[in-house]
Amino acid sequence: MKYDIAIIGAGISGACIARFLSQYKISICMIEKETDVSCGTSKANSGIIHAGYDPEPGTLMAQLNVRGNELYTSLSKEVHFTFKRTGSHVIAFTEEEKKVVQELFERGKKNGVKDLRILNADELRSMEGSVSSEALCSLYAPSAGIISPYEAVWAIAESAVINGAKLFLETEVYRISPRDEQGFFTIHTSRSDIRTRFIINAAGLYADAVNAMAGARRFCIQPRKGEYTLLDTKCCSLAKSVLFQTPTDAGKGVLVTPTVDYNILIGPSAEEKSEKDFNATTRTGQEYIFEKAEKTIPDLPRRSIINSFSGSRAIAYECGEDGKPGKKINDFIIEEDKIVKGFITVGGITSPGLASAPAIAEYVSSLLEKAGLELVINPDYNPVRKGIEIFKDASPQRKEELIEENPLYGRIICRCEMITEAEIVQSIHSIIGAKDLDGVKRRTRAQMGRCQGGFCLPRITEIISREKNIPMISVTKNGRSSFILHSKTR
Amino acid sequence: MKQDFCYDIIIIGGGPAGLAAACAAREQGVERIVIIERDLHLGGILQQCIHNGFGLHHFGEELTGPEYALRFITKVKELGIEYKTDTIVLDISVGEKNCFNERQKVVTVLSVKEGMQQLETNALVLAMGCRERTRGALVIPGTRPAGIFTAGAVQRFVNMEGYLPGKKIVILGSGDIGLIMARRLTLEGAEVKLICELMSFSAGLTRNIVQCVENFNIPLKFNHTITKIHGKDRVEGVTVSKVDSHRKIIEGSDEFVECDTLLLSVGLIPENELSVSCGIALDAATSGPVVNERMQTSIEGVFACGNAVHVHDLVDFVTEESIRSGKSAALYVQKTRKPASLRIPVRSGNRVRYTIPQFVDSLDEPFKILFRTADEYRNVHICAYSNNKKVKSIKKKIVRPGEMLSFEMTDGDLIKIQHDITVAIELPEEDVD
Q: Is the peptide bond before B145 cis (omega within 30 degrees of 0)?
């Protein structure tokens, strides 16, 4: 298999890069070790499209965040995922924090963030009635927004595939051989060898390992775990926009935000850890985020918790001589390697990585051109990807048409989120189809409501078994050996 | 949308509550009744409860869940009551009062067979049942592997679909479904390694503790909970910890129990999304609608019954309550009852968690107050007060939160009632009489 471009990693960065490059006449593949796209850092994060006042002016982060934020409007429309420009507030509770808000305001202006304003406490509370009376002022950024990150990655990656990119799932990269005389790298994977002219390392938490395989610039990725809690949709009036506290060295602090699906999300905690692939929640983590979030919104209803989860952010450090993390790298690492020509690192994509991703793709494209790749527009490029039509959100008339076209729209499987059988079946047969229960959940929200699959788990298991023509006991939660059922009864 | 369907009574839910209400309303003489059921069959959760123990009160004999359901399904068919299965209610809207002083209700339903329909009705009976509390609501720390189920989901897999979820089982919570599934899974060849109960007593029925746990030598630990879930793809084990009398985890009491499946039997929550959406008042203690002695909710002509109102421990009691609800709906439709003149609150006094009804609007006929206690107490008096005066007192050896209590308000008691009723549990040392 020969490609012009091989992208390692199918998270938000890899998917955006693949989709952007798919408008050109070049051959592209994405290589992903997991069973689905968006299974690493892109799966479990805040889902915030930051406005761009946080990064230091002059950094790549600053440049790409503001540009990426802008691009989300057209991107979300073209490939069909939900993006809501809810706006965000950074709230100050002390005189000291008021100064920070002022600094962020200045920084935002330098970074080119539009419509930034500092609101006094009354203005803030007239917009966000649940915010604590201790709040003194806020930096209001109307351009900030929210997405469902896995929905977005899925949609963007499908758009890339529609335009010819190949996606290899459950394919792990073991070794990379340098460019041969014809100018091709060989990527040795758990499946077969892939030959490619250019490599883009978008491997997230494993970007350091991939760079090492290629003999490219050394750095270390240290995961920073973040725990979150999700509240029931009945709490949706608690926050209408993203509510931050003032940032510290450990990150942007604990936020309270609506999600695109009308839940309230609080988190993250920030805990340095060594295991990259192991996300567990802890009692202390959960208590920490609640305690912190209650500074923003007092008396958060703990009875309305429907789920908690944790994810890992990929924080990049210079590699010390002992191979251990040294000094923290405070910007994205997006560059063609100085020694390994044709190898592009997209590393250390921590916050605001999600917001920046569409701009990261543009930037990578410009690096490829500089590196000698000829980019000719593909006349057949189709920017539009149609998603699954959501029954719940359709007008009464459209609902009737949908049932007319596909009677399975008439059967609700997930009662809490009102997801129909038609949507679940489509998610399984879509271009990048769901293979397991979590895949269905990420694509349709089925099992994501307040009963957490109590009623629909058996029925979705049956639907997957039927549609994929596999036995019930082969259905998994999320690939590998995560089987739902053990055996038939006696 | 098709909109030419008019009913006297629409019953939402075709489980034991809805079926009994429908039969009662028909026997009262109401013609146009329809039951809306979201599952493929009538019978509700009873269809997956293949163990026996149902019907001792109502039928005077011991039946399995499907047998109990079948009796009512047969009756519904004999009475010629219309029902729609595989049909879900999307919305209920309650209109303004018309010239007959009635509020017309419109129910929007959806099915594969008939698409979307709007059904108009004079009265509604809400019988949606309940759902199970989940891991998310409990915030059990740890990983998120496959193999964590609510007990009811496993019951469906085992009894209706014929699949075993795992071989080494730990159950959190000693609710009835958990206890019954402990026995069921043991009979299917799985090893139930442990049942953990946070409280010092079981939320389940005593007979289930004996028949499902003790008879099978399944370890049951009170004052224990699960503090961590282990495993990447599939559950590999749980950390079990002891708690003190304030339910705080005792440091150093952790113990790892290897298992491939965790079942949660940690409580049931009445399903009332539809009730809330049409503005029906809920009781924070029950999570169900506030009802009067006729099972009417805060909206006139909308009645409720069964586990949607409060979680019952026996289906027989659901049936009894639902017959009352169905009959009341019929009387409402037939306008044979004079309008309510009173509103007497029924309050939960000391050690009482909730009462059903929460208010009464007539003292003309005797009625029954159902209630649950907050904890386990011994040698108590169950008392009813009105206007701070004791109107009734009954001695009881032991009361448990897991067993619903009832209290008849007879004609003789009703004479003593003034503006309110309070039900309380009094401990021996408080007993001043």
A: no
Residue A242 in domain: yes
Q: How many domains does one find in chain A?
A: 3
Alpha-carbon gap: B230 to the closest alpha carbon of chain A (Å): 9
Residue A103 lies in a domain: yes
User: What is the C-alpha to C-alpha distance for residues B327 and B332, in angstroms, rounded to an integer?
Assistant: 9
**Dist CA A137 CA A114 (whole Å):** 19
Over the stretch A262-304, which tens digit does the pLDDT of each residue have?
A: 999 999 998 887 777 778 899 999 999 999 999 999 989 998 9
* Mean predicted confidence (pLDDT) in A102-125: 97
Question: Which amino acids of A are annotated catalytic?
Answer: 50
Considering its fold, how many domains does chain B have in total? 3
Instruction: Specify the residue for token string 């939660």.
Output: A477
Contact assignment for B146 to A483 by CB distance below 8 Å: yes
Same domain? For A112 and A230 the reply is: yes
Q: Residues B45-84: pLDDT tens digits?
A: 999 999 999 999 999 999 999 999 999 999 999 999 999 9
Model pLDDT for residues A207-239, shown as the tens digit of each residue:
999 999 999 999 999 999 999 999 999 999 999
Q: Are residues A354 and A408 in the same domain?
A: no
User: A225, A229, A305, A411: best mutation site toward chain B, by most B Cβ within 10 Å?
Assistant: A411
In 3-state terms chain B splits into helix, strand, coil percentages (rounded to 5) of 25, 40, 40
Q: What pLDDT is stored for residue B100 in this prediction?
A: 65
Which pTM value belongs to this model? 0.94
CA A256 to each of CA A105, A329, B328: distance values in angstroms, whole numbers, following the listed order: 20, 27, 46
Which structural domain, as residue segments, surrounds residue A34? 2-42+150-220+317-370
Starting at the edge strand that comes first in sequence, how are the strands of the sheet with A48-49 ordered?
A: A48-49, A145-147, A83-84
CATH of the domain at B352: 2.60.40
* Across B170-179, average pLDDT: 94
Q: Residue B101 above 70 pLDDT?
A: no
Say if residues B279 and B165 touch (Cβ distance below 8 Å).
Answer: no
Residues B96 and B110 in one domain: yes
Residue of A484, A488, A490 to mutate when probing chain B, most B C-beta within 10 A: A484
Minimum CA–CA partner of A475 in chain B: B146
Q: Are residues B195 and B241 in the same domain?
A: yes
CB contact under 8 A, A451 and B132: yes
State whether A472 and B234 contact (CB < 8 Å).
no
Q: What is the pLDDT of residue B2?
A: 54
User: Do both B155 and B53 map to the same domain?
Assistant: no
Question: Within an 8 Å CB–CB cutoff, is residue A390 touching chain B?
Answer: no
Say if residue B112's pLDDT is above 90. yes
Interface of A with B in 421-460 (CB under 8 A): 437, 450-455, 457-458
